[in-house]
Amino acid sequence: MTFQNTREFAQQLDSEDSLQQYQNQFIFPKVNDKRVIYFTGNSLGLQPKRTKAYVDEIMNDWGNLAVEGHFYAEKPWWDYQERFAEPLSKIVGALPSEVTVMNTLTVNLHLLMVSFYQPTKTRYKIICEEKAFPSDQYMFQSQVHFHGYKPEDAIVEIKRREGEHNIRLEDVLAKIEEVGDELALVLIGGVNYYTGQVFDIKTITAAGQKAGAKVGWDLAHAAGNIKLELHDWNVDFAAWCSYKYMNSGPGNASGCFVHERHHNDSNLPRFAGWWGHNKERRFKMEPNFDPVHGAGGWQISNLPVLSLAPYLASVEMFAEVGMEALIAKRDKITAYLEFVLHEIDREVAGTFEIITPSNPAERASQLSVFLHGEGRSLFDYLMKNGVITDWREPNVIRLAPVPLYCSFEDMYDFGQILKKGILKE
């Protein structure tokens, strides 16, 4: 398609958009009494309007039923988390038994590393990407310390080549082969939070396992954003947060995936808790742990249903839309945003540099843009004029045109505001 940087063309694209109706199902902040252009769904998604009813339902059941709500609420709290299995399995490409929700993201990654990072004297190294999200870096450091290793010996970072912003697949594969028999675990972010690069999960997983390692993925920026086939790709384990592209609210519950081939492995260590015990015998208060079959066996504590309610509202919306339709719009609106940026760059004689890969197969709903020659004042101008975006030092803005609630006209309007902000300086 040949794009045009005009309001009329953007409106035409919106009129052809099968997801346009969903924009009205979200609550937008306002700046100067006008709905904002929201580009930070890669940090915190907007609130769906339907969310309040899901939370109110639990509050009403708590008030009317108290403890009996565990069994007699409209959605009994006792098995509330089981409602996620079917819709989440479709979002991440898993069997329903392979997914569950519990805790928060880094907590779950730590718990999964209990099972899947089992270092020995000769096989103890972890491969991750350079500039992983800091929480992952801290997690790796504390995990290897816990096992008696030094981070500088046990953690192997795959680095970008000099002058390049993204990591090459061949460099990931070469590093896996180089570490070889010393490799215990590969754990990478499915989408790099800074650049927006999408990694080849299938190929990297196969390479890591061929080397004798377990392979897990931090899918914080991937779940609800890219096509995932975790079961078919043979991924050992994964975890993701729900508050970015899946709009479940700040700091909310995390999703987990454990491949079915690990479900019956009694030699696999795990930290156990009451809620992961055999559901039918849980209230018998037995002394020995008998895990629930599937990913649910990694649960530890009673699930916080007030937190799960917004997440359930969201995954049911995803079930209505389907990942195929989301990805189709994602690719189109991201391409249009890229076009608008290049047009504005040309009009203002600027030096924008999009550091996110241009290949659609290597990116999703994010463009990270170096604003060469521009300072923090441009970001401040955007924010004051109703564009909610994200600033990363030294001068990068991250733009996430989330397909559920961003419009093509938003992309056009953003370009005009950006142009005024640059010319103003």
TrEMBL record:
GO terms for cellular component: cytoplasm. GO terms for molecular function: kynureninase activity; pyridoxal phosphate binding. It catalyses: L-kynurenine + H2O = anthranilate + L-alanine + H(+); 3-hydroxy-L-kynurenine + H2O = 3-hydroxyanthranilate + L-alanine + H(+). Keywords: Hydrolase, Pyridine nucleotide biosynthesis, Pyridoxal phosphate. Gene3D superfamilies: Aspartate Aminotransferase, domain 1 (3.90.1150.10), Type I PLP-dependent aspartate aminotransferase-like (Major domain) (3.40.640.10). InterPro entries: Aminotrans_V_dom, Kynureninase, PyrdxlP-dep_Trfase, PyrdxlP-dep_Trfase_major, PyrdxlP-dep_Trfase_small. SUPFAM superfamilies: PLP-dependent transferases. The modification N6-(pyridoxal phosphate)lysine is found at residue 244. Residues 97-246 form the Aminotransferase class V domain. GO terms for biological process: anthranilate metabolic process; L-kynurenine catabolic process; L-tryptophan catabolic process to kynurenine; NAD+ biosynthetic process; quinolinate biosynthetic process. Pyridoxal 5'-phosphate binds at residues 105-106, 133-136, 218, 221, 243, 274, 302. Pathway: Cofactor biosynthesis; NAD(+) biosynthesis; quinolinate from L-kynurenine: step 2/3; Amino-acid degradation; L-kynurenine degradation; L-alanine and anthranilate from L-kynurenine: step 1/1. Catalyzes the cleavage of L-kynurenine (L-Kyn) and L-3-hydroxykynurenine (L-3OHKyn) into anthranilic acid (AA) and 3-hydroxyanthranilic acid (3-OHAA), respectively. Homodimer. Belongs to the kynureninase family. NCBIfam families: kynureninase. This is Kynureninase. The gene is kynU.
